[in-house]
Design goal:
Blueprint: H1 11-14, H2 24-40, H3 51-76, H4 99-121, H5 124-130, H6 136-156, H7 159-167, H8 173-186
Helix pairs in contact: 2-3, 4-8, 6-8
Length: 187
């Protein structure tokens, strides 16, 4: 197949026409969760690579999932927190710590905290700026959606993460506690 420049005169013959999904973000999320995650998190696919490459691929895929979940959450007002790979192995006595998993969790805590601060910065005043004649029902809907959003986040915050950060003396324990407090105050 040779490369062709797409112009106004030839676009109909060069480009193929197809259907666009009614919900492309959800489709991307589904493909990423069910196809890419399985392929790229399978250690058998990285037999000839160093462990660091697998960790880097998994972390980048997890960051992509986090971004997709953030976008989908903005569309649906229902944000899904993405947990780091190998989170299920989060068992520690405080002495034998998986440093890669600890780093992944700390990175996720920081990402969640930044996203949370972005959401907290969104104030009802923005609605008034866009529509000075907003109805009281719009204000009620805003507060109802906000409460649902923060309640959803609170149910996802895993207490095992807080415990893990505490027993490993992570400097991110403070950020985790601030995040939980912020979520509770936002509800």
């Amino acid at each position: 197949m040779e490369k062709k420049e797409v112009t106004e005169s030839n676009y109909e013959s060069v480009l193929e026409v197809g259907d666009v999904s009614a919900n492309p973000i959800e489709d991307l999320k589904h493909i990423t969760e069910h196809v890419l995650t399985n392929v790229l998190s399978n250690k058998d696919n990285f037999v000839t690579c160093a462990e660091e490459i697998l960790v880097d691929v998994q972390d980048n895929l997890n960051d992509l999932m986090g971004e997709i979940n953030t976008i989908a959450g903005l569309v649906k007002n229902h944000h899904t927190l993405t947990l780091p790979f190998e989170f299920i192995y989060l068992l520690s006595d405080g002495k034998n710590v998986d440093e890669v998993l600890k780093h992944r969790i700390e990175h996720k805590i920081l990402t969640w905290f930044k996203n949370l601060n972005t959401m907290m910065a969104y104030k009802v005043q923005v609605m008034l700026d866009k529509n000075p004649a907003a109805l009281p029902s719009e204000f009620l809907l805003y507060w109802k959606n906000r409460e649902a959003y923060f309640t959803n986040l609170y149910t996802q915050i895993d207490k095992k993460i807080g415990y893990f950060l505490t027993i490993t003396n992570s400097p991110y324990t403070t950020i985790y506690k601030q995040m939980v407090d912020t979520i509770v105050s936002g509800m």
